[in-house]
Amino acid sequence: MGADGDSYDLVVLGAGPTGENLADRARAGGLTVAIVEHELVGGECSYWACMPSKALLRPAAALADARRLAGTREAVRGQLDAGAVLKRRDEFASHWKDDGQVAWLESVGVDLVRGHGRLDGERRVTVETPDGGRRTLTARHAVAVCTGTRAALPDLPGLAEAKVWTSREATSASSVPGRLAVVGGGVVAVEMACAWRALGSEVTLLVRGDRLLDRTEDFAGQLVADGLREAGVDIRLGVSATAVHRADDGTLTLDLSDGTRLPADEALFATGRVPNTADLGLATVGLTPGHWITTDDTGVATDVPGGWLYAAGDVNHRALLTHQGKYQGRIFGQAIADRAAGRPLDLAPWGRSVATADRTAVPQVVFTDPEVAAVGLTWRQAEDAGLRVRAVDYELGNVSGAALYADGYRGRARAVVDLDRETLVGVTFVGPGVAELLHSATVAIVGEVPLSRLWHAVPAYPTISEVWLRLLETYRG
Ligand SMILES: Cc1cc2nc3c(=O)[nH]c(=O)nc-3n(C[C@H](O)[C@H](O)[C@H](O)COP(=O)(O)OP(=O)(O)OC[C@H]3O[C@@H](n4cnc5c(N)ncnc54)[C@H](O)[C@@H]3O)c2cc1C
Questions:
Q1: Pairwise CA distance, residues 188 & 375, whole Å
Q2: Does residue 68 lie within any of the structural domains?
Q3: In this structure, are 263 and 279 located in the same domain?
Q4: Of 253, 305, 329, 377, whose CB is crowded by the most CB atoms within 10 A?
């Protein structure tokens, strides 16, 4: 309980990675903070998203890497031990228990209120507690909505009754389906197709559009499609599901837009996300239930007068990634503390800057085989934004560090150069083991490092990072 009964300086709705970071920063800034959580402290990321999905994918990548080298190839002739992979995944998901994160909240002095929270007018939150009770929390300064998203399902005949998989089941399933249909062509779809194929499922990927990963450079979707096909995934482009039926014996049938039918044991619908705002009392503060909450760069909800309502993380739709939600959590939490203390914004650790990187330099890794690691704008996005740019491409297989990393290494890098400033606005790497290269590109973009300076950032020989030198040489011509 706060110093003053159920009144706190700040009430945070949702204890996912964003809410936790925002609460921590505001508390460190001197505020009393309550955080309301109706499921598990740690949010989607810890239990049904980043952690379990990457725990499923990592063994597949390690095995694929071993298969790419003469010498180790001979040592790994078998398949993944699915039971062991699922067991390790369970550990990374903390067995779907949040004791560790609850203890962390206690250690930083944030009060946890279990239950479903709803806004109830200005600076008030009501919580339906698990014992059927009700608590009203009053916020002296601010309420921060950090309630995240959930899977969006299309309105298809039979879908609700068929009990299809969403990302939750795809990341937490305890056995490997014989035949898995995956609907979607985005990050969740391709990652889960990759993981479950490696674990032994026969996977069919149904993609409405004509390519995978349509928010990345064209070649990224192409190389990932090649990798999935080589692994045995049946990719069908330009096809969508029109109806789903589950028979009494448990078998699913998907009716497809091309007139065919697809039998499966499970079907994952990875068809987008919707904000968790439908049952949040948004109407009591003049917002529309079910909509994203728009904010300024300090997190203030722009459509609510008074500047007391903040929204951070997935729910504000700026960048639906854990690291960006945590970034906002740090900056917005500090802004709330500064405003509560009546100080001018003192975002000193961040160069007094409000959140900008969640618009201009969002890094993302797609952990498929090959991996896609991208930050900033694609060439097309940069052109659409009116920048005068040049795309500089280099085949990663020609880099000695990459050739050493894998026999017959296949991959590509692209740097998008802003010709007027001679800085980078976007970088994409595709290939095995490129994920850890990405931060170098993020630093170059956020730091607006001139290309003339990048020549002095000499990559260690022989690493895949040598691609930086090759990109600069290719640009210079
Ligand atoms: C399969 C999958 C894989 C992903 N992999 C990655 C990855 O590798 N890297 C990455 O950066 N991102 C990844 N993401 C995205 C990442 O999961 C989200 O960006 C991140 O979880 C957002 O954090 P958040 O705190 O904003 O929301 P969430 O994690 O969704 O947390 C919101 C919290 O609010 C709670 N809540 C909601 N409504 C209420 C209410 N009314 N009252 C009380 N509590 C409430 C929820 O129970 C939840 O705990 C992945 C997503 C998916 C689906």
A1: 18
A2: no
A3: no
A4: 329
How many structural domains does the chain have?
3
Query: Which tokens is 102 given?
Result: 């609850």
What pairing do the DSSP bridges indicate for beta strands 7-13 and 33-37?
A: parallel
Same structural domain, 458 and 346: no
146 pocket-lining for ligand 1 (C-beta < 6 Å): yes
Instruction: Find out whether 116 and 107 touch, Cβ atoms under 8 Å.
Output: no
d(CA 193, CA 235): 10
Atom of ligand 1 nearest to the CA of 315: 26
Ligand 1 centre distance from Cα of residue 397 (Å)? 36
Question: Which residues are within 8 A (CB) of 477 and not within 5 positions of it... i.e. 6 or more apart?
Answer: none
Kindly give the distance from the C-alpha atom of residue 14 to the centroid of ligand 1, in angstroms, as a whole number.
9
What pTM did the predictor assign? Answer: 0.97
Is residue 2 included in any domain, yes or no? no
CB of 433 within 6 A of ligand 1: the answer is no
pLDDT in tens, the chain (477 residues): 454 559 999 999 999 999 999 999 999 999 999 999 999 999 999 999 999 999 999 999 999 999 999 999 999 999 999 999 999 999 999 999 999 999 999 999 999 999 999 999 999 999 999 999 999 999 999 999 999 999 999 999 999 999 999 999 999 999 999 999 999 999 999 999 999 999 999 999 999 999 999 999 999 999 999 999 999 999 999 999 999 999 999 999 999 999 999 999 999 999 999 999 999 999 999 999 999 999 999 999 999 999 999 999 999 999 999 999 999 999 999 999 999 998 877 666 666 567 888 888 999 999 999 999 999 999 999 999 999 999 999 999 999 999 999 999 999 999 999 999 999 999 999 999 999 999 999 999 999 999 999 999 999 999 999 999 999 999 999
Both tokens of residue 37?
């959580």
Distance 23 CA to ligand 1 centre (A): 16
Question: Is 417 part of any domain?
Answer: yes
Which domain CATH number covers 386? 3.30.390.30
